[in-house]
Amino acid sequence: MTAEPTTARRGATLGAAFASRPVAAAVTGALTIAFSAILVRASHATPSTAAFFRCAYALPPLALLAWAEHRRYGPRSSRDLWLSLLAGAFFAADLICWHHAIADVGAGLATVLGNLQVVLVGVIAWVLLNERPERRLLVAIPVVLVGVVLISGAIGAGAYGRDPARGVLFGVLTGLTYAGFILVLRHGNRDLRRPAGPLFEATAASALFCLAAGLVLGDLDLIPTWPGHAYLITLALTSQVLGWLLISVSLPRLPAAVTSVVLTLQPVGSVLLGIAIFSESPSPEQLLGVVVILAGVTYANLGRTRPA
User: Fold this and answer.
1) Do the beta carbons of residue 26 and residue 250 sit within 8 Å?
2) What would the pLDDT profile of 4-15 be if each residue is shown by its tens digit?
3) Cα dihedral 181→171→31→27 (10° resolution)
4) Fewer C-beta neighbours within 10 Å, C or N terminus of the chain?
């Protein structure tokens, strides 16, 4: 019998370790993708360029992992492939809108606005997937939303950005498309043994959609520049590969509302990274928002000792 590739064995070990701890996987993934806005800002790439190369540079390692899963478990159904294509479309729209929001209102506020999915995912999952949130989550969601508003700077002085109104519009669109991506990816990832396959397909589809959108919008630069693309490669390997693999492991094992609440750790991480790397000085209201979100996430998962 042919031995499994080393990459496949390591991937299986990692997957098994986090499969029994889906909340830990979601938290680790959320903290990993918290670097996204920082890396996009550091790259100085245009919105479409950053979105396209984030996906393109992630394809080789994801393809290797997806191939190992295909070899071990066989092909995925055509229905799941179509769901991955739809997830990729949502993700492309999410990335482009988010990168425009970063340019207009800054990395912190753009990341916070994108996490409007905290409310949207829970509500949509309740209406469309008949996943009634637990009472604990119904309490935690508005608490987390208050923290999101506090971090955004909407309360208190300190509104900033070159075009706040347009940035807020792009931020709201980011939240809508982010919610669609999370729900569709979760719905197409029913086979708990293979998180890499759906993520690879969605990322490949997203790269194609970003390429087309960039050509239409006219802000796509296909010639790599340095050190900008070093940041984009780092973004692809950390956020798109490691971060979303961990989140993909957790998505089908947790109620959608739990996952959406845990993912709000991303804006918290972005605020802390902004302080550490760019010497940003959040207002007292924003720091209070960090505390409120952490309290909401802790309360939502209090007493949860095993996967749903």
Assistant:
1) yes
2) 444 445 554 455
3) -50
4) N
